Amino acid sequence: ASAGSPAGAHPGFPAVPPDSGDRVTVPEGFEYDVLIRWGDPVLAGAPSFDFDNQTEAAQSGQFGPNNDYCALVPLRSDGRWLMVSNHEYVNELLMFPGWDPEGPSEEHVRTSWAAYGMSVVLVDRRREGGRMRARSSSRWNRRITLHTPFEMRGPAAGSPLLRTGADPTGRTVLGTMANCAGGTTPWGTVLSGEENVHMPFAHAEKPTDPLVKEGLERYGFAEGASLRAWEKYDERFDLGKEPHEAHRFGWIVEVDPSDPDSVPVKHTALGRFKHEGATISVAPDGRVVAYMGDDERFEYVYKFVSDGRMRKGDDWAAQRHNMGLLDSGTLYAARFTGDSPAEEIDGSGELPADGEFDGTGNWLPLAHNDRSFVSGMTSDEVYVFTRIAADRAGATRMDRPEDVEADPRTGRVYAALTNNDYRGAAGQPGPDEANPRKDNRDGHVLELCERRDDPTSERFVWRLMLVCGDPESPSSYYAGYDKSRVSAISCPDNLAFDAAGNMWIATDSGGRGGVNDGLYMVPLSGPERGRVQRFLTIPAGAECCGPVVGEDHVLVSVQHPGEVPDATPENPASHWPDGADSQPRAAVIAVRRKDGDHRGPGLRVGT
Ligand code: FEO
Ligand code: CA
Ligand code: CA
Ligand code: CA
After folding, report:
1. Burial letters for 202-220: b for 16+ Cβ neighbours within 10 Å, e otherwise?
2. Positions of the region Disordered (predicted)?
């Protein structure tokens, strides 16, 4: 079978061909439902969606736009879950008819604040022939927005660097934003990464404290007024007036979806950077480890190792104990050392003489609670300016680390390095064995084995499993598998694992080569290791995120459909999912077999 053709005798599904249409495609024998869309009611009393009449009040009770991470946390009764979605960002130009970039109206700004954050929605499949349905207004349903109070916890909570006029304690923050990917913890909570938090702040030129200035620059905060004009309606977004408000975003947040009245937490022990997400592994001794990526060019891979041990059971005391595990522990950044001679890593992407991009690595400790391991920085400074700490520790600058997550069956850790078109450019870092391609447009997937298979270990070995891109190019590598039999994949972003030993990869290529993004499956071991197969594609302009791979269902977030240059509400580039002349709406879709058969893991696609 040729790449992308459905002719391969795959045991689980025939790969779908690449697509460029304004539609979702799934394999023969499968179908999908739209579970929930931007604007659908989440809370009791919320109105139905009205694109032309959006208000803060309506959006506060509706599903937000541009959902990224998706978690399904099972309820105790069979067939019901709490779905948690991240609403990463607002694109005002496409969201609001009549948005005025010269002077956004207060209602548009306030509606945006209500659109950010997260949703908790009950999903039920006990009726309607086993189809999943999102239920509006269950007792668990919740919207978290830029107004929801969060508790800062961990070693830097209360630090002077986190205090503002509105919060002299440095322990209570209003809202979360730029929530990208995340993780579902073994204790039933959801972690979410605050990623591009610099975007809405204004006037980074105004603070005078040298460390604050260095931090704003290192994290990419911009000078001058902001395009979004948030600072006009809330002074906390004006860094000249509240320089520390910037420090109160860029954290991993934890939400307990089972308790809609719970106060969500921002975890300072996990460091502050442009968090893609955080995923949990449990060590043999019960300590928990959070793997994390900082998604920007030349940023780092991190992990956190807890001091405490996880308690089994879902009683209230165990839950309370486990929700404190991320409050104290050690924060590390990763250093990757290649084993091939530097001259063999020439930037072309062709394999070195030993046949693999591989080597050894170290987790470099940055801080343990009140103790800093970085000279010249206090522990508070390490936690608030973690990027600067990792710079000084000598961590390895990577090609945009997105999801970092362990396969629960083997404990092996996989890091999606989505791309980096600056690698090897003038004045920029050149290729190294862990990031071996110049102008890395297609990204790669790194596989990491902790020493003695213990996730708390400070040493590891690693190799690149996939060097993505055109299978016919000598600069791509599909774990040594016959590249004439794979689906081409570009820009890996979010990862998930099924019970049969396959990894699922959602892509964010921005439509590279005219091919829509999608979800791919690849076996991790055995003779099929490296055989990437395209499972679904999503509409043009959309990014595929948040895959959930269950026993009989696959959920993905279809983020920002129709977001292409020059699109406007008057001239939308997509009408998905409602068709006709509708505006595009981000959504969660659920894929299942047409015959409704839900026996066996991973849609029975195991190899
Ligand atoms: Fe929001 Fe790293 O993608
Ligand atoms: Ca090598
Ligand atoms: Ca992402
Ligand atoms: Ca991305």
Report:
1. bbbeebeeeebbebbeebe
2. 1-24, 419-441, 563-582
Q: Side chain identity at 554, as an amino acid letter?
A: V
Rounded to whole angstroms, what are the CA distances from 50 to 41, 55, 109, 441, 583?
11, 9, 17, 38, 11
For residue 493, the CA-to-ligand 3 centroid distance in Å is 5
The answer for 102, left when phi > 0, alpha when psi is -120 to 50, beta otherwise, is alpha
- Nearest alpha-carbon partner for 219 in 239, 191, 192: 239
| pTM value surpassing 0.90 | yes
How many whole angstroms from 520 Cα to the centroid of ligand 2?
Answer: 27
* 180 CA: nearest ligand 1 atom: 1
Closest to 31 (Cα-Cα) out of 458, 554, 461 = 554
Residues with CB under 5 A from ligand 3 (ion): 180, 402, 493
C-alpha torsion sign, points 369, 370, 371, 373: positive
Q: Is residue 115 helix, strand or coil? A: helix
E strand segments, 62-219: 67-74, 80-87, 117-124, 133-135, 142-144, 149-153, 172-174, 179-184, 190-194
* Coil, strand or helix at 364: strand
Question: Which has the closest alpha carbon to 43: 123, 142, 114?
Answer: 142
Does residue 402 line the site of ligand 1, with CB under 6 A?
yes
Centre of ligand 4 from the C-alpha of residue 475, in Å: 22
Closest atom of ligand 1 to 276 CA is 2
Report, in angstroms and rounded to the nearest whole number, the Rg of the chain calculated over CA atoms. Answer: 23
Per-residue model confidence as pLDDT tens digits over 264-297: 999 999 999 999 999 999 999 999 999 999 999 9
Closest CA to 334 of 260, 275, 401: 401
- DSSP annotation of 397: P
Please check whether residue 315 is in contact with residue 187, taking contact to mean a CB–CB distance below 8 angstroms: no
The three-class DSSP label of residue 75 is coil
| Cβ partners under 8 Å of residue 525, min gap 6 | 410, 501
Model confidence over 380-425: pLDDT tens digits? 999 999 999 999 999 999 999 999 999 999 999 999 999 999 999 9
Give yes or no for a contact between 196 and 166, defined as CB atoms under 8 angstroms apart.
Answer: no
Enclosing H/E stretch for 478 = strand 477-478
Q: How far apart are CA 489 and CA 535, in angstroms?
A: 11
Is residue 276 lining ligand 1, measured as CB closer than 6 Å? Answer: yes
Strand 301-309 versus strand 287-294 pairing type: antiparallel
Q: What mean pLDDT value characterizes the chain?
A: 95
> What does the DSSP assignment read for 400-454?
-EEEEEE-TTT--EEEEE--BTTTTSTTS---BTTB-BTTBSS-EEEEEEEGGG-
CB of 180 shorter than 6 A to ligand 1: yes
Q: Tell me, in angstroms, the distance from the centre of ligand 2 to residue 225's CA.
A: 48
